[in-house]
């Protein structure tokens, strides 16, 4: 099947051509080059291209257990304290390779943590409060289509998300008919604790899925 990183890079080269794909992949992680309104970013050609990958390709590369985390203002995501806790917890439990860690993001919708150092995921800035109604509807529908295509592979989705992200996720789950596979961990003031608990639940789900 190959890794999601290999799949993404191959997808970029096929979609953009060698010269443009090479150019964007050389953009330094953390250098913000995509800014604007939600509508501008959701309709940016490279973001729209990623949305196609999310629906058509990403479902082929998820594990039976998914850990869903919120995005971070820190780019790449894996440098943020909460995401580091999640990855460390999964590693200590010996299940890091068996859990798909996905980040729920506007405007990217879903991003595998393995891709967080690549353009455009390491190079955008859009605060969640900037999400307008039309962009939110787009996000829900793309997420729903991706979740629907994951149904055959995924048995458990452990999600810990702030309120706005959680509402989007719940709507998409209802459309995709995957609510029965979701375990929610409240994401409150103690975000570190929430993320640690979610990672532990994902590890338990791996054990139960054997």
Structure description:
The chain is of the alpha/beta class and 210 residues long. The chain has one domain: Uracil-DNA glycosylase-like (Rossmann fold), CATH 3.40.50.10630. The chain is 48% helix and 11% strand.
Helix and strand succession? HHHHEHEEHEHEH
| Helix/strand/pairing category | alpha/beta
User: What overall geometry do the principal axes of the alpha carbons give?
Assistant: globular
Describe the largest sheet. 5 strands, mixed
The value of Rg in angstroms is 16 Å
The counted number of beta strands is: 5
- What fraction of the residues are assigned to beta strands by DSSP? 5-15%
Assign the CATH superfamily: Uracil-DNA glycosylase-like
CATH level 1 name: Alpha Beta
Q: How do the strands of the widest beta sheet line up side by side?
A: 3-2-1-4-5
Termini distance?
Answer: 20 Å
Helix content: 40-55%
> In total, how many domains does the architecture comprise?
1
The unreliable regions are none
Mean pLDDT: 96
CATH architecture: 3-Layer(aba) Sandwich
Give the number of helices.
8
């Amino acid at each position: 099947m190959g890794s999601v990183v290999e799949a993404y890079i191959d997808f970029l080269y096929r979609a953009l051509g060698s010269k443009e794909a090479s150019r964007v992949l050389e953009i330094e992680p953390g250098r913000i080059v995509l800014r604007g309104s939600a509508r501008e970013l959701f309709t940016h050609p490279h973001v729209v291209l990623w949305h196609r990958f999310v629906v058509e390709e990403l479902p082929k590369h998820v594990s039976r257990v998914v850990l869903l985390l919120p995005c971070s203002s820190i780019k790449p995501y894996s440098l943020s304290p909460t995401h580091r806790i999640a990855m460390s917890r999964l590693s200590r439990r010996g299940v890091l390779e068996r859990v798909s860690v996905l980040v729920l993001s506007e405007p990217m919708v879903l991003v595998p943590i393995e891709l967080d150092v690549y353009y455009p995921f390491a190079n955008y800035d859009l605060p969640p409060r900037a999400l307008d109604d039309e962009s939110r509807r787009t996000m829900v529908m793309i997420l729903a289509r991706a979740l629907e295509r994951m149904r055959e592979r995924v048995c458990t989705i452990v999600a810990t998300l702030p309120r706005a992200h959680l509402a989007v996720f719940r709507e998409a789950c209802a459309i995709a008919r995957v609510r029965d596979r979701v375990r929610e961990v409240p994401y409150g003031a103690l975000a570190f604790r929430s993320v640690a608990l979610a990672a532990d639940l994902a590890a338990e789900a791996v054990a139960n899925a054997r």
